[in-house]
Design brief:
This is Serine/threonine-protein kinase PknK. By secondary structure, the protein is mainly α. The protein is built from 49 helices and 14 strands. Among the domains are: about 180 residues, Rossmann fold (3-Layer(aba) Sandwich); about 40 residues, no CATH class; about 120 residues, Arc Repressor Mutant, subunit A, CATH 1.10.10; about 100 residues, no CATH class; about 150 residues, Arc Repressor Mutant, subunit A (Orthogonal Bundle). β3, α7 and β4 form a beta-alpha-beta unit. α11 runs antiparallel to α12.
Length: about 1000
């Protein structure tokens, strides 16, 4: 242990020596450095000499002082200050440090020096004199003497002659290279560097724990400082305004770090602080001709930085680099700094960092060079949705006074399209006209005209957009322009297929148009060479997935992008529709309000119209507020909705629903008939099923029953053709009588209308979590609990039952409800005790944020989005499938049902609540299997249908729909004998149940045998 220095000689009593021999004072508030403690202990077992070399401010001295306090051995401490280079002085200081703790040992070094023995030999004698004492000698600030050959020779001699069991620990800001035989195991040196000294997350949490800093902020600090202790504390002080002299503190720390370096090395580091990575090549580009020699010099000094394995690349910690950059600004004249930064931009551009190069050049006002680089960088930026930089660039570009070149102009148009900010492109066109647009011999010709037409169309300049489109030659760009203008002009030009070698611009535009044309099956994945969550068409992929009921897939993509501010369609329209579908009313309105703000920044009149149309839909779907909806529709019309066929139709659609809700049926009929006719003529079929549904209701109310039936069938045909059963169900939820009447008119109970009616009467609210659950309870078969993929066993079955009950409830549950559901002993005290035990066992194996929490008399999960049970996953999957159609629906249903194949719900548990829940889950699974079998039958996938219906009949022989389906399958497969055999089995099953056979089954068999 480190002890206070005892009685020493008169020379040793001098204040300077006393200061050198004193280890640093350690506050009781210091955090523990377990990694460092273990590392020092382990190295001292195998090495007599250990070096601790790291940058100033890394906590070396204090960390070592704390570590050696844990050692069960005598520790002597010597702090060097650079005055020890006189012959023999360092040796006497070393001897004095040991003498404080070993007063019984004769002063071997002093006696040797008095007898004329050279200091290096005297050092060996001093080391040997400590034999058997177990001494550990700690020398701090060794960098202050390593440049002196005599001092280094003494430390080297000491290291060579240390007896077994004696150790020496050297603390230094720079590398310590002792003159020893590296092959000699007795003198090998153990090394500790910044990797051990830099704070990790746990250590930083301890060091900063008293300040109440959130974990995420601590992680941000470590990213900025790499765990450099002094830098981390400084950064905290700056963030919390605890250090009013922050700049002076930074200057002192920087000076301390740079102190061991030569003046030329300090200047080199300061000037190259512009570089994210310092290499010889980059440094020479910044006018550092001696870069190679200086880089070698820097390798011997410990800095707040990391080196590549080959020691050719130096990467400064971000905070230290910032300090050096500030030092540069104060040490060089403006012109020198400008020249260095210009050179730096060239380095960036040549080494694959065009974004940083452009930003640097723009900040220097070197616009022409900046835009040459921007022309190369912007396409990739847009593809990966780096809109922040792109927007800044485009703002600067438009400020250029001279007419843009085609290359520069294309940057503006492409960026405007990618960010859905047509206003930018329109400002360019209004300022410079069309003369700058590239001609037919340019590779940009068709794309430029198409994008210019798109900008003018968004601004409502339809005549000008038509002129631009007419200049396009025959081809895909012309087809895309014609389809765009048809949304306003009302025509229905042939819709081109997506290209096998897609163009981002043309195909992304076709995706936007195709959405309104109802071509939803083609929007199930992004297109373009950069397909993925960052592709230009992804907002319409989300829209298409959502329209076809694939809410989970749509949300998965949306969650990746929702934190950004672009693109507007994603936030202004996709988000609103998704939140409506998920029943999140408040979030839907939040998205709507945010959407209005984003739309204002796009400069698009079309988007402004659609923002109000969306608001009208929200008012009607969520609140049935027809007056508020009419106000929103009036805003859309004042903005020019009637100038575009597709927005005029949507005004008619939502106004028609307003009239229906107000029972103004004649007016509703007028609006809805006109809307259906326009949509059919223009082949704009996205909402055709919706408007046909409303029209069927209007016809019925006015006594036009045949017309009502035709309109309902049109709605069903359109939904089937588009795969948009989700949109149809949304419309039927507004006027459910349409489905009921159509089902009543159907010849049998297996019609599509009966399916839709059943879906409307059930719990059709899709529920999805925005985050992947961390805690999953497997409820089918033997119940198991996993936390982050690893088993978590509470060792009490009642804990599992408790958790399953809370998961099924999806709300706060009172103590009385829990006791009543989970216990039937009628012993309140025993039940309460058992409930506490069940909760305790869960909390023992789960983190606080995932374990059930008690709030007064109520229990719930604090973060329900992170916790789930597989029964609810299966039921939610079936509910989501209800909004889908055809192959997509069948795939979703099979995926959900497969998860339930492990066995019964909570198979090993019993009790009234478990039995009731097991019955409810089982009934829903049986319904799901029947629905899946019916769908497979309709899709001519007879084998899958037969397997599912056989499973239903095995466990639920009372299901008449399953018998009808089994008989129909046998007939469709050409097995007439099986039809009769199944009918006989059915009759026997009904006799066993004691009920009369269904006349409908009899009619089915009679009809099939004709």
């Amino acid at each position: 242990m480190v002890n206070e220095c005892g009685a020493v000689s008169a020379a040793q009593q001098q204040p300077v020596i006393q200061r050198k021999l004193a280890p640093p004072a350690i506050s009781g508030e210091m955090f523990t450095r377990d990694r460092l403690n273990r590392r020092i202990t382990d190295l001292l077992k195998d090495h007599r000499v250990v070096t601790v070399c790291a940058a100033a401010g890394s906590g070396k001295t204090t960390g070592v002082a704390m570590a050696v306090r844990t050692l069960d051995r005598v520790v002597a401490w010597l702090s060097l200050d650079g005055t020890e280079t006189a012959p023999g002085r360092l040796l006497k200081y070393l001897e004095s440090a040991a003498a404080c703790h070993l007063p019984h040992i004769p002063p071997a070094a002093s006696q040797a020096l008095a007898n004329g023995i050279p200091p290096v030999e005297a050092a060996g004698l001093l080391a040997e004199s400590w034999a058997g004492s177990g001494l550990l000698l700690v020398c701090d600030n060794v960098e202050k003497v390593t440049a002196d050959t005599d001092a280094l020779a003494i430390l080297s001699a000491l290291a060579r002659y240390l007896p077994a069991g004696i150790g020496m620990l050297l603390i230094s800001d720079s590398e310590v290279v002792l003159e020893i035989d590296p092959a000699d195991p007795d003198t090998s040196v153990g090394e500790i560097d910044h990797d051990i000294l830099n704070l990790n997350v746990d250590e930083a949490g301890q060091a900063l724990g008293g300040l109440g800093i959130p974990d995420q902020e601590i992680a941000d600090l470590l990213a900025q400082t790499h765990g450099w202790l002094a830098g981390t504390r400084f950064a905290v002080a700056q963030r919390r305004s605890l250090d009013n002299a922050g700049n002076r503190t930074a200057d002192r720390l920087t000076a301390k770090v740079l102190a061991p370096l030569s003046q030329s090395a300090r200047s080199f580091l300061t000037r190259t602080s512009l570089l994210a990575e310092v290499t010889v090549e980059f440094a020479i580009a910044l006018e550092e001709p001696d870069a190679a020699q200086l880089m070698v010099q820097l390798t011997t000094t410990r800095l707040p930085a990391t080196w590549s394995a080959d020691r050719k690349r130096l990467i400064l910690y971000p905070l230290f680099r910032e300090w050096l950059a500030a030092r540069l600004a104060g040490s060089e004249d403006a012109e020198t700094i400008r020249r260095l930064r210009s050179n730096y931009a060239e380095v960036l551009a040549q080494n694959g960092h065009p974004v940083e190069a452009v930003d640097t050049l723009l900040s220097l006002g070197e616009t022409e060079r900046a835009w040459r680089q921007a022309a190369l960088a912007l396409p990739n930026m847009v593809a990966r949705m780096d809109f922040t930089s792109a927007t800044r660039w485009l703002d600067d570009l438009v400020a250029i006074e001279k007419t843009p070149t085609p290359e520069v102009g294309m940057i503006v148009l492409r960026g405007s399209f990618a960010m859905e900010q047509s206003g930018r492109g329109n400002r360019l066109l209004e300022r410079f006209g069309h003369d700058w647009l590239p001609g037919p011999d340019s590779p940009y010709f068709e794309e430029a005209l198409l994008l210019a037409a798109w900008c003018r169309w968004h601004d409502g300049r339809l005549t000008e957009a038509r002129v631009l489109a007419d200049r396009l030659p025959t081809g895909r760009a012309r087809d895309a322009a014609e389809n765009l203008l048809a949304l306003s002009e009302g025509g229905a030009p042939p819709f081109p297929e997506f290209s096998s070698t897609p163009s981002d611009t043309i195909d992304a535009l076709l995706m936007r148009i195709g959405y309104f044309r109802g071509r939803l099956r083609e929007l199930d994945r992004p297109t373009g060479p950069n397909s993925g969550p960052g592709s230009l068409g992804v907002p319409w992929v989300i829209a298409g997935l959502r329209a076809t009921g694939r809410i989970h897939e749509a949300m998965q993509i949306y969650e990746v992008l929702r934190s950004g501010w672009q693109p507007p369609w994603l936030h202004a329209f996709d988000a609103v529709d998704l939140m409506i579908d998920l029943g999140r009313r408040d979030e839907a309105w939040t998205a709507q309000n945010r959407g209005h703000q984003l739309i204002a920044g796009t400069g698009s009149r079309v988007y402004r119209i659609f923002g109000y149309l969306n608001e009208a839909k929200l008012q009607l779907r969520l609140h049935q507020d027809t007056e508020a909806a009419r106000r929103a529709l009036a805003e859309a019309e004042s903005g020019g909705a009637d100038n575009h066929a597709f927005s005029r139709e949507l005004c008619q659609l939502w106004r028609g629903l307003c009239h229906l809700l107000d029972n103004r049926n004649d007016e509703a009929l007028t609006e809805l008939e006109a809307c259906v006719e326009s949509m059919r003529l223009g082949d704009r079929r996205l909402e055709l099923a919706t408007v046909a549904t409303y029209l069927a209701e209007a016809y019925w109310r006015l006594g036009k029953e045949d017309a009502s039936d035709e309109a309902a069938e049109l709605a069903l045909r359109e939904a089937s053709a588009r795969g948009s059963q989700h949109l149809l169900l949304n419309a039927l939820a507004d006027v459910p009588a349409v489905a009921v009447r159509a089902a009543d008119a159907s010849p049998n109970r297996q019609s599509r209308w009966h399916e839709l009616t059943a879906l409307l009467s059930g719990d059709s609210q899709v529920q999805l979590s925005a985050r992947a659950p961390r805690l999953v309870l497997e409820e089918f078969g033997e119940a198991t609990l996993t936390l982050d993929g690893m088993p978590a066993n509470p060792r009490l079955s009642k804990s599992i039952e408790l958790m399953s009950y809370l998961l099924a409830a999806r709300r706060e549950v009172t103590r009385e409800e829990l006791l009543g559901a989970l216990f039937d002993s009628r012993n309140d005290a025993a039940d309460s005790s058992y409930l506490r035990q069940a909760l305790y066992r869960l909390r023992a194996v789960l983190p606080d944020e995932l374990a059930p929490q008690q709030n007064g008399n109520r229990f719930a999960f604090p973060h329900p989005e992170l916790v789930c049970g597989t029964s609810q996953i299966v039921l939610d999957g079936l509910t989501q499938a209800d909004r889908q159609d055809d192959e997509i629906r069948l795939r979703t249903m099979i995926e959900a049902l497969t998860r339930a194949n492990r066995g019964q719900y909570l198979a090993a548990l019993s009790g009234p609540w478990v039995e009731q829940r097991r019955f409810e889950v089982g009934a829903r699974l049986t319904d799901g299997r029947i629905d899946a079998a019916k769908l497979a039958f309709r899709l001519s996938r007879y084998r899958e249908a037969r397997l599912m219906v056989d499973e239903v009949l095995r466990v639920s022989p009372d299901r008449e729909q399953a018998w009808q389906l089994a008989i129909s399958l046998a007939h469709a497969s050409g097995r007439d004998d099986t039809v009769l055999a199944l009918y006989q089995r059915y009759m026997a099953a009904m006799r066993d149940l004691g009920v009369a056979p269904s006349a409908e089954v009899h009619r089915l068999v009679t009809r099939l045998r004709r």
